[in-house]
Design goal:
Order of helices and strands: HHHHHHHHHHHHHH
InterPro entries: INTS7, INTS7_N
Domain Integrator complex subunit 7 N-terminal: 65-234
Protein name: Integrator complex subunit 7-like protein
Number of helices: 14
Structural class: mainly alpha
Number of domains: 2
Radius of gyration: 19 Å
Distance between the termini: 56 Å
Number of strands: 0
Pfam families: INTS7_N
GO biological process, one term: snRNA 3'-end processing
Largest sheet: none
Length: 235
């Protein structure tokens, strides 16, 4: 029987760690992207059965430990890596996040980047928030994209919500567009968040100095709000 991803996770984690410690940014980027492809495949596989755990000499839930270790190493790479490394990490999380599209509520509760699967989610949020707090506008924009990809747990963290609100009124268009992406992601799991953002979007699209790309991004966010009773009344 071909090895399932859960049985390969430890090797993936070790390879990623070695590449990141090598201080070779090219090698680091290559390994990060390779790891991303493996995580995509892993996220498509069903949870291993007891028989599968036994077949590959795995302890039940051991795979969760390694998946969380890999995610945290990717976050550390984002925090301490250069621009190319940061972009590679964001690309990985974006690719995995896109696989959640089309899943029902039950499936989303246990998917790869769900709160139930990512046990060290608070640590991940804190480390990326530190990059946002200390970084330039580009670093802030990339951090916001990660928060959007982590909507299932980041949306519950009040400081992250505040960052999105403040970034929506930033003077840097890249940061604004990234905050709109994060906001649109949060809408899918938090209804009251959309109510707060609705008024901000209304003012944003009317602002004459807004860049066309940013205005278009803001308009597109409206379409992702849904139409709950509260939102309809507010509109």
């Amino acid at each position: 029987m071909e090895k399932v991803s859960a049985a390969c996770a430890m090797d993936w984690s070790i390879k990623l760690e070695k590449s990141l410690r090598s201080k070779n940014p090219v090698r680091a980027v290559e390994t990060i992207l390779e790891t991303g492809e493996k995580l995509e495949q892993w996220s498509k596989e069903p949870k291993p059965s007891i028989a599968v755990y036994s077949l590959f000499d795995l302890i039940p839930e051991e795979d969760r430990l390694f998946s969380n270790t890999i995610l945290l190493r990717l976050v550390d790479a984002f925090c301490f890596g250069d621009k190319l490394v940061k972009l590679a990490v964001v690309r990985v999380f974006m690719s995995v996040f896109k696989l959640s599209r089309g899943k029902n509520k039950s499936e989303c509760a246990t998917w790869f980047l769900s709160k139930a699967r990512v046990h060290n989610h608070l640590e991940m949020i804190k480390r990326v928030k530190n990059v946002y707090d200390k970084g330039d506008s580009e670093a802030k924009a990339l951090a916001l994209i990660l928060f959007g990809c982590w909507r299932d747990f980041a949306s519950e963290f009040a400081p992250v919500r505040y960052l999105i609100f403040t970034s929506m009124v930033s003077s840097h268009d890249l940061e604004v567009r990234s905050s709109l992406f994060a906001a649109a992601c949060f809408f899918e799991v938090v209804d009251d968040f959309a109510l707060v953002v609705l008024g901000m979007l209304n003012d944003m699209v009317k602002f004459p100095g807004l860049m066309p790309k940013t205005r278009l991004a803001a308009v597109r966010v409206f379409a992702k709000m849904g139409c709950s009773h509260a939102i309809a009344n507010r509109a």
